[in-house]
Every structure is written in C-alpha cells, then in structure tokens.
Amino acid sequence: MAYGDNDEIVLATQAYVAAYHTGAMFTHVRIGDHAAAPLIPGFFVFMAYLITAFRIGWLLSVAFTSLFIGMGIALGCCIVKKPEAERLLGEQDIEDRVDRR
Fold first, then answer.
1. HEC profile for the chain?
2. Is the entire prediction scored with pTM above 0.85?
C-alpha cells in the first residue's frame, strides 16, 4: 500500500507541515531576522495548502490550513522568546518611567 493512497496519512502530514513551517515563519519574525527569511517556510505552508486542496477541495483546505497555521502560531508564542535586547529595552523603559515620577 502506498502512502499516497491513504488520505488520512497525507492530510496528517500536511497538517504537520503547515504547523511546523508556520512556527518557523513566526520564529524568523519574532527574533528579527531579515524580512525575506519567512518566505521560504511560507512557501512550504502554501505547498501544504495546495496538496490539501487537491485532496479535499479548496474551501475545506483553507479552513484546514488556517487551523494548523493558528496552531503553529500558538506554539511559536509559547516556545519562542523575544530577543534579550528587546526585553531589556522594554524593562529600561519601565525603569525610566518610574524614575521620572
């Protein structure tokens, strides 16, 4: 039996691809990489959408891919911390505001 014949395996794989690569996009944005860095993982999210669209139709594919994009972003928020410089800058701003009072 080929894996391509089993829709459940293909859709589960595409769900993983969409969530994983969305997390990669989120990481690039969160840590302040070059603006073009999220384009490569974004291409794989788009490919996951296309493969899903061929299997279940474009409307369900939009909902399916959006669900797992949301999961990737949620996991990225939990796992990826802001760079140290941004956190220190934010703390410094708070200290400056307190000192002014």
1. CCHHHCHHHHHHHHHHHHHHHHHHHHHHHHCCCCCCCCHHHHHHHHHHHHHHHHHHCHHHHHHHHHHHHHHHHHHHHHHCCCCHHHHHHHHHHHHHHHHHC
2. no
